[in-house]
Hints:
The structure is a single chain. The protein has 25 helices and ten strands. By secondary structure, the protein is of the alpha+beta class. The strands form three sheets. A four-stranded antiparallel β-sheet has the order 2-3-1-4, with helices on both faces. The chain has a four-stranded antiparallel β-sheet with strand order 7-8-6-9, with helices on both faces. A two-stranded parallel sheet has the order 5-10. The protein is elongated and about 90 Å long.
Amino acid sequence: MKRTGKPRERLLDPARPHAGRLSRLYAREVVRFRWAVVGLWLVVAVLSVTVLPGLGGKASGGLNGFIPENAPAVQTEVRSYYIFGFPLYSRTLLVQHDPQGLSGWTLAREALFAAGLTRREYTDVGPVLGALPMSNSLPGMPAASARGTTIVTSLFMPPWISFESQLVAARQIGNRFLSAPYDSYAGVTGTIPARAEQARIIFESLRTVELATLAAIVLITAINFRSLSAPLLTLAVNGVAFVITHNASPFIGRIFDVAVPDELAPLLVALQIGVVTDYVIFFMSGLRRRLEAGDGRLPAARSATAEFAHIVLVAGVTVAAGTGALLVARSDLFRAFGPGMVMAILIALVVSITLVPALMAIGGKWLFWPGPPGPNSAEEMPGPGPGRLLGRAFGRDAVRWLTDRRHAALVAAACLLGLGVLALPLSRMTLGLSFIPALPADNPVRQAAAVAQAGFAPGITSPTEVLVEAKGIGNRRPALARLQRSLEREPGVAGVVGPVGTGALGELGVFIARDGSAARYLVILDGEPLGGSGVATLSGLRDDLPRLVQEAGLGDVKTGLAGDTAIANTIVTGTRGDLLRIAVAALAVNLLLLTLFLRSLVAPLYLLASSVLALAATLGLTTYVFQDLLGHDGLTFYVPFASAVLLVSLGSDYNIFGVGHVWSEARNRPLTEALVVALPQTTRAITAAGITLAVSFGLLVLVPLAPFREIAFAMFVGILLDAVVVRSFLVPALLVLVGRRSGWPGGQLHAGPGEHESPAADTPAHPVGATAAG
Length: 774
């Protein structure tokens, strides 16, 4: 009897972790050297501030890796410049607009001013190489209203000049030379000014996002643990992780020749703060349970560390490996996402599994001040916090109800049906790369674009160039004219300016090369040029161009498309091509780690399938909100894929925490009874962690740019669906339905009786004890 007493007591105490030998050894040592651990991290943080910036340098200044230099659109643009000696369009534009019509004097003055800029008559205008004005009075140029109301002047600058410098130079020129009332100057626009404005807005919003996220984390932690001191631990751990990441990222990027773009900074901040806080909540929930069970400060810290350290370690590695799947992409942008996220998660992981246990051992019950936990047996009724409502709904009585297979089937069917309905709009999702519409409505660059589009057509801010090459093609004017008319009739094209009908511009070598070897056309689309509709129009034009050339009678010629829409088309096409590679890599990594952790093949399959279904529902709902309700012309191309990798990886994180506890209990009791014991314990922690992570990402909405609002919505909704619907309802129901086969082929699950029956049917007061005693 003496030999069976302790095991039975251990089984009857669901708060007592079933920790392995290595976990107990680690917990003992990290608690033993707690002061040394804290001191070490303080030294590392100080060194990262004082040493690493000098070694690493500054991070990348922008998302310059959208497209490789050997892409066809880029090569066509370079080829056109080589043949003609100057580009046909610019990404920095000056806009003049008068709805009543510009005067002939204004039109002539702008032409002379542009010619003077090109001839370098102005020596103090900054890095401007030339200018080309276009009025909506030109033949073939679309006019949204009356003709002669708008002038768009392309400013040509060296490509090595930064976006910000180009925007500053353009504004100085506009304010200096177009300041008279009759000039009707509206401002500067274009994709380069838009990207410069995006970088400025992100930089200015970053501190707000950081402070708001930390404030939300403090509030959630304080409510969840009913403590004023628990948030201090959370802030301390987050502060150490953030300082090290912020200063180490340029240094690590320099070592591995990977530059983390500055535009990703808010996303990395949200990811790291959310992950660190999640792990703090997991550790602290274990500490609270042990203190409530009557353990002392150090034993409670050792027990909580032994219980959670290996789970947090596996969970963190899973998230890091899952986000690292972005490295298999061919897109330079996705390859820049991966290292930054992996680095942020790994630093968060190492800090969490060392510093949090050390601080728990030092603080003990004072971490829950002003209400230090004491002995408390009311585990089924968790106290106030984000998980209280769900904790009550998923107390032991509710879990016993769920362990009836009929009830489990009903819950699983409801979850699957609901998630499936939410996923339906996913079939309508389109992708784009809109820079200007992503800006706030009151931004000067967007307002100038609206004025230009009011005078021409939406595509005027990013026109498309069609280049046609063949020996002597410049002398074949009738065929070139037929091609121009055919291009004008293409779906989605508002107007075409080319070799025919442009007067002096045609004779000056703007549209026909002086050696007659090439001709080019400027195509203006009737929709947002970098949105989903513009990308689709460009795809159609690319497919039709060989036929149009033949029908025009030009014969065997070489054609190419250039411009931002062509680049956006290449990016979106490449992104879709990367989807399969990223998806396979992310799913394979998460499946492998889940299989190794659970020592099972069956459970990881339906756990991962549940995450994928929740992801589909998230993206479907995001598509519905932004495309159908808000009228966005497609989602920003990287939002669905970054969200997908993060949500699947974070879903596996919660799988490891929640199902890992069930597996631990199921080694000693039937699976349904393990659910009754483990699920109420983990529900509040997972829900609190999920809400924390969702809020962390949701606060990206404070960055007033469309891509960040899209990813904030997707991550907020996706994490809540995963943490609440999938982990608390769907997964337990599937565990009940699949039963002990979930552990196949491993032998981790207990083979006791009553596996498919509700344990509540036997002994309502102490079902676990009755089964264990049997």
